[in-house]
Amino acid sequence: MTTYFYYPTKEVQEELSCIAKALVAPGKGIISADESISTMAKRFQTVGVENTEENRRLYRQLLFTTDPKISETVSGVLMFHETLYQKTDGGQSFAEVLRKKGIIPGIKVDKNSVPLYCSMDEFTTQGLDDLHLRCAQYKKDGCDFAKWRSVIKIDRNTPSYQAIMENANVLARYATICQSQRMVPIVEPEVLMVGEHDLDRCQKVTEAVLAAVFKSMNDHHVYLEGLILSPSMVTAGQNSNKNNTPGEIGLATILALRRTVPPAVPGVMFLSGGMSEEEASVNLNAVNNVPLCKPWALTFAFGRALQASALRSWGGRKDNVLAAQSELIKRAKAHSLASIGKYIPGSIEGTAGGERLLVDAYEM
């Protein structure tokens, strides 16, 4: 029957809903510290740090052992598989350290993008085959939410219908598997900033992608109250000759969401997508100040735009740890204020403040 459906049990629904609401609590967002080993090599190269497992552990330890007041602005931390099973100098698992601060541990579960054959050089994301087993283990090991990234590129003839539908269906299948294992899925259809497209084109593409994603969520009986959307903000491409104001970016983003995202979804956690730390705060603030009905929490799941100043301040030196943690606290506070529409542009400075952070679009 076309009307047959299956949802998680009431107990699981309640658990998923509670986790999702905690992640998007007012003034809080997520630190995306789920960079792969190869991506960390690029990050470390910018500050002259060798990409060894020990240096990656030390850097993540720096982030996760920041003063407990970080929990006032951070609700969750996304980790890479390696990171989840690393420990502090004192022998505590990182998941345990985070939980003691009241921060929810999460995990990246996709296995990177791969070419979508017979498309216009587009991509799909792999990792579904053993996902139920991995999610079950990650839940046992302390993770309450997961992330899956799909990339959508805008060009003259893309995204194709093929790419939109493929990625929408993969995201929905991932979401159902996560929920079956009592983990909240963060659904990340990232419309890339690369390209020459203008704001209007990005808005239209975003609407097409999100409409397909939520149609697929409905087809796969995903429990929307136990899901979080993590899209890009609507912006012109990095090679566009048009500079839009934060107000224009905010309005285009909200219009795209209002036309496609059901109000049952508890929250939208935006990607920074290569924006500078300051730019990410200013644009998130503008999104929250659009004078239209916004039935979701609108907050952040930032990686580079939260860590850039901290990484630069640390530079691999033990005596710089406190300074780096101070930078992380400052930037998290800026994004926190932006998530409730109260950030004053330029009021919180960082060592990497206005530097654009756009790198390889397909790095995972």
TrEMBL record:
Q: Which GO terms describe its biological process?
A: glycolytic process
**Pathway as given in its UniProt record:** Carbohydrate degradation; glycolysis; D-glyceraldehyde 3-phosphate and glycerone phosphate from D-glucose: step 4/4
What sections of the sequence does the record tag as coiled-coil?
A: none
List, alphabetically, the Pfam families matched.
Glycolytic
Where are the bilayer-spanning segments?
Answer: none
* NCBIfam families in the record: FrucBisAld_I
Q: What is this protein called?
A: Fructose-bisphosphate aldolase
Q: Which organism is it from?
A: Drosophila mojavensis (Fruit fly)
- Tell me the name of the encoding gene: Dmoj\GI22619
